[in-house]
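Report of the visiting student (M.T.), summer placement. My assignment was to run the structure pipeline on a short list of targets and document each run. The first record concerns Pappalysin-1.
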Amino acid sequence: MVPGCHSETQEGILAHFDEPSRCYFHDGDGVCEEFEQKTSIKDCGVYTPQGFLDQWASNASVSHQDQQCPGWVIIGQPAASQVCRTKVIDLSEGISQHAWYPCTISYPYSQLTQTTFWLRAYFSQPMVAAAVIVHLVTDGTYYGDQKQETISVQLLDTKEQSHDLGLHVLSCRNNPLIIPVVHDLSQPFYHSQAVRVSFSSPLLAISGVALRSFDGFDPVTLSSCQRGETYSSAEQSCVHFACEATDCPELAVENASLNCSSSDRYHGAQCTVSCRTGYVLQIRRDDELIKSQMGPSVTVTCTEGKWNKQVACEPVDCGVPDQHHVYAASFSCLEGTTFGSKCSFQCRHPAQLKGNNSLLTCMEDGLWSFPEALCELMCLAPPPVPNADLQTARCRENKHKVGSFCKYKCKPGYHVPGASRKSKKRAFKTQCTQDGSWQEGACVPVTCDPPPPKFHGLYQCTDGFQFNSECRIRCEDSDAAQGRGSNVIHCRKDGTWSGSFHLCQEMQGQCSAPNQLNSNLKLQCPEGYAIGSECATSCLDHNSEPIILPTNVTIRDIPHWLNPTRVQRVVCTAGLKWYPHPAVIHCVKGCEPFMGDNYCDAINNRAFCNYDGGDCCTSTVKTKKVTPFPMSCDLQGDCACRDPQAREHSRKDLRGYSHG
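After the run finished, the structure tokens were exported:
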């Protein structure tokens, strides 16, 4: 019967009609039952039999790895949340966070050639192995295949010799795989320092490798004991054997209290050492630090004339305080940073001290005392903003609290950046921020729209299209004689022109029919070719768009960061020239209508298509994981994160950025 399930008679079933089932599934319920200790890693953790010690890999190397499947994930104990899976199709979803598999191998599985994959797990403490333990997340079997997979295992000793443990069949039913190590007693024992696992299935995922040894028993050391020596399990070494036990020296530990089982220090006597408040236990064995603990105590035993552990009580160290203790302050700790020591602090300019006590004390729990003063950040008078007038009189003073505002107004002919052309907002505020500086503000010149394109190339302006600029078209004297006035316009402070250009009397005729068009470009001119007439641009290939390219760029070598201007029409100017000239208009591959769909489309990964709506960078895609389309698209090539505005490139000098 399944543990937790209760059998019922037919009457009992009828009696409990429409009631919940009383069957209960124990695995994964968070409670470690006795019958689960050897089988449930979810509820009971990794099982180690009594009398043995399991050492997990401290380093690893593998045959195939990249950023998606690093070999280091097998270091340490396996994740308790992972359940072994069989008959899988691929390992693309989340496996690499908990287990290693050779993910650089291309799919589909059925077309793979025979390849040998391997991993090598290293252990920090070489030992005589009793068994090798391999934890699986998948058993390497493919969805459409009935064949069971195998692994080959070898031990590597401290003399770089290999010891073969044979070939072993994999199954999720026998997970973890425990491989016993048989030693030839006619040969000397050896210390194993690494395990090599070889296999041929790309669908095998391993989450951990352990080396099992005897707890408190080292056959190599035991076999090296000389005459008059015996093996000590407490020391894990050979010790001199004497029939008369030697007393231990007097135990003296500063800043500690001792509670001993006897006033004598004979073999087997024990003392409990407890550190005083504000001190931490330092436990050593053979001058090597075993661990450091806050308490409460440790017991030492007299063994063969010496104490089995060396114990000291060191003062708790609070570490150097930082801005999390007092913001905008610098600290001076002349007494050190251990228990009872004091550190003083000073406020960094322009912050000012509020309170009288600028000292912190290292407390018994390793934390600094709560500060009785603070550094209040203040801003000085805000700096002048070019082309703007300060409107708030109090802002000329030198003390302003964080969060204070100062109001400005742009001078006539200037406006706030980002304001719409219609509103031309002139007033803005700056705020005193938490680092003691003011938010930046700016006023930019008002600009007017360019005059109608039919006058392109005929006018001259004193300052472009900015406020107060004068633009003029020079006509022949006959215009003035006929009373048509001056052909001059001015850009006003509201962003509009003072008037409009008119065609000079001599500006007559029509443009010649457009010819010598670039490949794939088509022009439609329903209004004819007279001055001011427009011709619509289009491409013979409906998937392309007409654009203007710089003179040094061809249609075949457009860099991804170039965002060429789209062209919808050309105009016949009063100078009887087409603008823009058809010779500079080309047809370029248009954007696919799949931007912002969480798939990185290689054809859209360029500035012209807004870098596929952010789908090709981890920081901008909605799922926070880049999925290439097609799947073969290289994440370091056509599907790489190229958007210079993405957070991945925020600290790079874009002038030196590789544009693919």
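Residues 1-17, 652-660 have pLDDT under 50 and may be disordered. The chain is about 5% helix and 30% strand. I thank the supervising group for their guidance throughout the placement.
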